[in-house]
Design goal:
4 copies of one chain form a homotetramer. With 340 residues, the first copy, chain A, is of the alpha/beta class. Helices cover 36% and strands 15% of the residues of chain A.
Chain lengths: 340, 340, 340, 340
């Protein structure tokens, strides 16, 4: 739509789409609103829409993913999590423990994240664990502790929903619901996320191609939830010096194909504490819009993933360095970086 | 337990386990019954059980997976699907289309599988698809067609449950419920499968290690369902001459670590019709207990995966060759093949 | 060329090729001779050759590899190693230690291979080792021991050349020169192998695609040596239950694209002794023309790769089982297996 | 050795090593000289050396690689290429075409690199090509053009040796000899490089683990050449949005294990022009000591790799951005970044 398009113009286009038997998707942007169409069995003639009032352009999306495509919406999507814009000018840092272990532990973590300069708090109340005999999370109790941490620190809460049964509960407490790597192609869960009113953080699967990653996001948008943040967290390869191989090139690749913001998880992406800060910096330099990092008050006593968690002081160093780097990059943004 | 252990002996052991606050798992075998213990926070002294009546041996399982381990149960598990034993002396062939597309299509497929010598029918009524806009299956209608095909041909039905919402329905129609590769670490679904009374066919995830694969099965057994069939279906690598890289060495590897039967899917494992028969033969030679193969009456008109589906005549060739190979191998079984 | 083409016909075609400024390659077959053309900067009109005497057909090869393509030569190439045909009706077993360690060791190995039913002897006199401080092979002394083992047992000798400096020496002793996986894209070494009169065993590189594998063979043929045996030996993936992931689907894939014979190395392909026999059988079932297997008189005392070597008795079991399987497959060859 | 150790002290230690029958390696550093020992069949008692004059410490190296280990030499190695220090405080940019194609092309490239702010010139006179029919480089003519470009611009020349035959020639023209990814385990070539007096740029193999990478460098150092620069250039994975997957986490991983400098090749690492600048920045942020980048006066007319080459203006942008980033990082070096 044109930037000066009126609500009536938008309504008009949607009415036309509905009249044709298809589904309209109003994806608002800072400057202009994009309207996606799904449900059409074959191509539609752009001329059907080009002359409607307020329409700037009607484009046939050439990719298998439609609503996530930059062809559908040219400008970057900014997702607000508890008021914090993800995908805009500033980078966003989300920190916290792998799992919520106790009231004290999550409160201390939240204070550390806040003090270090983070804006969002992570922490799993429901944990997908390889073994049925491992700690599976505190469940709703964990969610309550997260809410308490938010109340005290003001940090927005990002926490994972591992299945549809727990989604309602997670959604009711969280500011942003995470879909983990193992669930990236759990299509029922993606559809449920698509019907949520909360933003979704979608992690890339361990052996997911870029196209599969974007198609997973498409599942969410196709149900009407356009607030999706993508997250690279490492893929599985033969390399054994890190737990996963962090594929940072997916950051500019996503940005050229999609309007959705992408952040990076250097904790799972490396699995080693001493690689987290270098790879955090590399992520920001590659263009990531933020980071999600494991922070624990006492990493050596963590119930899970302690070896990849930063302590509060290390997180503060990470944040300070990353903000300095982001400032530098922002100050030079006049120069066009993507060269093709 | 000793082979001559009485029900009372078994009950006695279980009572003791319960008294200690743990969970007993009675895993029946052809010769002897094994009793697994879970729920113990740390190691238990084997002496607690060794002197109980009917106990042959009390073993501490050294692996992260407990109930699936061959340490827990030495003899092969045989899973019966609609009366067909999977994991015993004979190999089992399961054939059918990727998706149930229509009544005619599934009936024709079933007749072809039956005529070709197959004993089980596959076909998805619920399909996990990379794109939200692809055909997602006929749902319950598809399940009804499968039941009709079973009624006509006598073939047992293997069909996939993609989420917990549809599990009850799938379970009520199927003789064996498939958990697909993308859901191998959908732990809620695995737990639901563990509470089912139907056998489960668990496919290896695309980038799953052997340990993760066995741990996924452990989720099912830990809930009390000991009838699990494992299935290798190819893993994701750089190699591009096949859709996935069929990792047949996982067959003997599973067999040395676990008592559960393993079969192979050469259709997804190669993604190319002309590789299916050679890899089917290779699977049997490697020791697989059966195959699950895509068969379609008219592969070129299939709604999904047609390029990797066999036509009825090709399936008949596959079956004839595989049975001949299996007969040869069975006739030579006196020779111990595993050499370590 | 037609099957009844005369030497004069062949000469005529070659003369024409030379006259055009290109390079002719006479690749003899059991039934018919193929003549490949290289050195042409662009496509040549087939009509230039179609009317020459003795020409059956002039085909433009559509692949990047030309001389190895089945388009160039339709019938299977049979490579003779010390008189043993590799690529014909019968499978060929090559056994022996990773490295020649001593006169006694290689003689005992050779006797074991011979007694077990093998026809070729493997053993490295020059070893490519990851560490500069590991045992690098006995060099020419090792070659002399191999020659002695051949003299005593009649087994043909397959041994590796690791560089051009040692190629002359290796070539002078060996019946077949092996190019190892690490050298699959050592193009100078490939060119040297192409100027050799001895057959070449070319192993697939650890992360080589099928096309790269065939292009490596093309380097050898392009220099005039058409006696190349390909060998699958496992590729590098995330899977950790075997040392490498044996990619058996490359066997039928090579066979549909190339006339060159392909064999399998289940020892390096699995890296574990107890997986060797199952994967050897799987290789034969997939259509491999032979196997190259590590055999050591006393595997536990081997200087390298002992954990994946068979002892003499295990090799005899492997050979007996594989021959029985190959006999079965040969007896059923009336049935066309590749179905597309 | 102590920082105030005299040449006589060093000589004394070496004499002792030689007297014991081992090989001494004098590896000079900015502050202190390290002396490595190889050739010992088993561990040596550190006490043998601790009391010798000038000795600061005698350490048993725990890794399979010895001379490249940071245990042997604690401070960073700085390698001088045509006077340019690689591995020190400043980052170094090396640019130039994939292959030297003509006098004009390489001179223009060199001028562009110089003007853009680069200090080293890359360009292959000998090219390892997948196909025997592709352009294989201009050979010595190409080397002469490179020398001419150096004479005009003052840029140091980095160029590849693909085999031992051409090594002497390459070495005589180059300021730094490159060993390519395909040759990372060409051990004869590594040994030859170890006997060279020119610095060596060693690229990581396509499926090389970190340990194999360091062991390949060890081959060079073991022969007496301690001037080795490591280079990450992407590894082979299933991911298909880039030509290779750039594994930047290897940068901090190398730096914690080895004293050798590591740089990154974002051109091969991504294979796509528009990903080069983001990944170049990410590399510097991860701690890389420099970059090697493909630059071509007219990328669209390049004989090889044009789609991943930058044009002169793009290279100037890359250089400006990378230097600005490196300045920022250097200015903050007070903060300890590695946190473990």
């Amino acid at each position: 739509m044109q930037s000066q398009a009126t609500p009536a113009d938008i309504e008009g286009v949607c009415a036309k789409i509905v009249a044709l038997g298809f589904k309209p998707h109003i994806i608002p942007g800072e400057q202009r609103t994009a309207i996606g169409i799904t449900g059409n069995p074959g191509p539609i003639d752009p001329a059907e829409f080009e002359s409607l009032p307020g329409v700037a352009d009607a484009i046939r999306v050439s990719k298998a993913y439609k609503l996530v495509s930059r062809e559908t919406k040219r400008e970057d999507t900014v997702v607000r999590v508890n008021g914090v814009p993800v995908g805009g000018e500033r980078i966003v840092l989300c920190g916290g423990p792998c799992a919520v272990e106790s009231r004290e532990q999550i409160l201390e973590s939240a204070r550390a994240v806040k003090a270090g300069g983070g804006e969002l708090l992570r922490g799993g109340a429901y944990k997908p664990r390889t073994s049925p005999y491992s700690f599976q999370g505190l469940g709703e109790q964990g969610l309550r502790y997260l809410a308490e941490a938010r109340a005290e620190t003001g940090l927005g809460v990002v926490t994972e929903a591992v299945d549809i049964e727990s989604f309602d509960l997670v959604e009711s407490y969280a500011d942003c619901v995470q879909i983990g790597a193992r669930n990236m192609q759990n299509f029922s869960l993606l559809r449920r996320a698509g019907r949520s009113r909360k933003p979704i953080l979608l992690k890339r699967g361990m052996s997911s191609t870029l196209e599969e990653f974007l198609m997973a996001a498409e599942y969410i948008l196709a149900e009407g939830n356009y607030n999706v943040i993508l997250c690279e967290r490492g893929v599985r390869t033969f390399a054994d010096h890190t737990r996963n191989t962090l594929d940072l090139s997916v950051v500019p690749a996503v940005q050229s194909l999609s309007h959705l913001p992408i952040i990076v998880d250097p904790s799972h992406g490396t699995g080693k504490r001493d690689k987290v800060i270098p790879m955090a910096l590399a992520s920001i330099a590659a263009g990531a819009k933020g980071l999600i990092v494991e922070v624990h008050p006492t990493p050596d006593r963590a119930l899970s993933d302690g070896y990849q968690s930063l302590d509060p002081q290390q997180f503060a160093v990470l944040a300070e360095e990353c903000y300095a780097l982001a400032d530098l990059l922002a100050s030079r943004r006049r120069v066009p970086l993507a060269v093709d």
